[in-house]
Amino acid sequence: MGSKERIQRVKEETRANILEAALEIVKEDGWQSLSMRKIADKIEYTAPIIYEYFANKEGILLELTRLGNGLLLKDFKVAQSKYDTPEKQLEAMWIAYWDFAFSHKELYQLMYGVDMMCCEITKSLPEAEAARKMLFETIAKIMTESEPTEEIVCRKYYTFWSIIHGLISINLVGRGNTPDMNQHILRDAIQGIIKAIND
């Protein structure tokens, strides 16, 4: 491996370490505790080195948001690939969304501003747009007989999102039900909306 490749690899590793340290701090102490100084202390670097990779904390938050959306998109693709009918695909994708929210709680909080003071992060990341597009296209497949307009598909998407995101938010702030009850509510909501789309 040449020196240029080695230098590039070290830069990529340092960048990944900064992001990993930021997430560890958040998991331990919450988003409000995240600072460039704490990240530097965590990885035993000086703060100026952190600034060589990210201009400010918002740059780190943007990259973590991109990371979260990339993981969610990957989960959507896996969930969708398991089923043949758009109804089952859509249900699996929304359940994957639910699972993501709890397996990557801190990233979900950042991506959707749940229970935290959140800076305004770019909402049009390619990964976020690709995940939304998968859901839109699957909803449209279910509605093919009625030839839905983009506005109607968009309305159905927001119906799903508002109910599922609401249920997740209730649970993330500690006011939810038992896991078993949550699964019943989640499936009832998804299946109810899919049935309404088909009617």
UniProtKB/TrEMBL annotation:
Presence of the UniProt keyword Glycoprotein in the record: no
Gene Ontology MF annotations: DNA binding
Domain HTH tetR-type: start-end pairs: 12-72
Protein's name according to its UniProt entry: Transcriptional regulator, TetR family
TM region(s), chain numbering: none
DNA-binding region: 35-54
Keywords linked to the UniProt accession: DNA-binding, Transcription, Transcription regulation
Source organism per UniProt: Pedobacter westerhofensis
Domain of life of the native organism: Bacteria
